[in-house]
Design goal:
single chain, about 400 residues, alpha+beta, five-stranded mixed β-sheet, 17 helices
Length: about 400
């Protein structure tokens, strides 16, 4: 300790000239007395001047924060302008009424069922192998409803230029004993409103469509249209032959078909360029494109469509997070349905007869039954037995009793 003290005093004496030198305050020279400590303290707390690069760096940081604030403000305003805002909507029901009669097109085929006594004259605008169109056709065929089909060219869409609703399917309905014509939109809504019409012996279609209002909204770039209540059936009163649980389960599976199952189809059908071309050749055959389209139109749809759908299929695979081997996603989702059917222990999900969920699953699968993907599905799952039961009952118009009993009330 003594050694440390001596060392400190020696160093202090050596630097006495620096630490305790005289200074001038107010023009008076101060000696080495009481001001020595003030001078020493001053020299210890004074910071050295910052270099010029530090000042420039500080300015850059400040400018960066300012620019960031401006960009953030601009971006938040951009998001604000993109917030979905409602658009004034017309009165309920009126959204489905056509202001004038649509142009006449030669139907690609006409399905006339003698037992159909509804009096409705229906025309389905469709793509033959569109899953949602197949779903509507399955419903119409099962219940034995008469209708005509207009095959829409998927490239030129010349058959839908007369309407502002360009998606397919849509159903044009001429009401009996009336000049009013309805345009029913969205495959799920079409099925729900027609099923409600068949269930209600005295209900008319004009009143029932009011239960499915169209709500339009904008995200700043485009207008979107949603159909309210599209999965709900309008019974009027609770049906005596159905439980609440049964109704809810049917609605759940219908929604699963639209939200999940249908999205595994395209990535599987268009998995490779070869499969994509094979699929479009089958679409041409089953849709009789040679009869309804010019040669150049048919070839354009086949070749441009196959290439486009191959890349779209890849995008859909990523969007819906399917497995690298998309076949496995197809098999897994199909088994979800089959396992539920096995657990129920009945021939169909609806029991002894199909319900709307059976018709929905079967309908979208018929869209791909001529493709390699469906062949693989039959080889790797037990879907074939249920599928063939459905084919039989749909082709024989198993639900036609409702159509027969409806009469001409619309």
């Amino acid at each position: 300790m003594a050694l440390f003290g001596r060392t400190f005093l020696i160093n202090l004496s050596r630097n006495e000239g620096v630490i305790f030198r005289s200074i001038k305050i107010g023009g008076v020279e101060q000696g080495v007395g009481g001001q020595r400590l003030a001078r020493w303290a001053t020299t210890r707390i004074t910071s050295p001047p910052k270099p010029s690069w530090w000042k420039n760096y500080s300015k850059l940081v400040g400018l960066g924060f300012g620019a960031g604030a401006l960009v953030s403000t601009a971006y938040m305003y951009h998001l604000y302008t993109k917030v979905a805002t409602p658009i004034p909507n017309s009165s309920a029901g009126g959204q489905y009424v056509l202001a004038k009669k649509p142009p006449t097109f030669s139907p690609s085929r006409s399905i006339q069922i003698p037992t159909d006594s509804t009096g409705l004259k229906m025309t389905l605008f469709q793509f033959q192998t569109c899953p949602f169109c197949c779903k509507v056709r399955t419903f119409l065929d099962y219940f034995g409803l008469s209708y005509e089909v207009i095959e829409v060219n998927s490239v030129t869409r010349s058959q839908t230029r007369w309407t502002d609703y360009r998606k397919v399917p849509f159903l044009v309905v001429q009401l009996p004993n009336s000049e009013e014509i309805l345009q029913l939109k969205d495959s799920t809504m079409i099925i729900s409103v027609l099923q409600s019409f068949l269930n209600n012996k005295t209900a008319n279609l004009q009143d029932l469509v009011k239960c499915y209002p169209l709500v339009a909204y904008s995200d700043g770039r485009k207008t979107h249209i949603e159909v309210m209540n599209r999965y709900f059936l309008m019974y009027g009163q609770h049906p005596s032959d159905r439980s609440q649980e049964d109704i809810v389960e049917e609605r759940k599976w219908r929604k699963w078909v639209d939200d999940v199952f249908v999205h595994v189809l395209s990535p599987n059908v268009y998995r490779t360029p070869k499969e994509a071309f094979q699929a479009f050749e089958w679409f041409s055959k089953v849709g009789s494109w040679e009869e309804h389209f010019a040669t150049w139109e048919r070839l354009l749809v086949i070749y441009v469509g196959a290439v486009a759908m191959f890349f779209i299929g890849k995008n859909l695979k990523r969007r819906h997070q399917l497995k690298d081997d998309v076949r496995q996603s197809f098999y897994e989702e199909t088994n979800v349905w089959l396992e539920a059917l096995k657990k129920k222990g009945t021939k169909f999900m609806g029991g002894d007869h199909p319900n709307l969920s059976d018709l929905a699953v079967y309908g979208i699968l018929t869209a791909v039954e001529g493709c390699e993907a469906f062949h693989d599905l039959k080889q790797n799952t037990t879907i074939s037995l249920w599928f063939e039961h459905m084919r039989e009952t749909v082709s024989q118009h198993g639900g036609a009793i409702l159509t027969t009993e409806k009469g001409n009330v619309a």
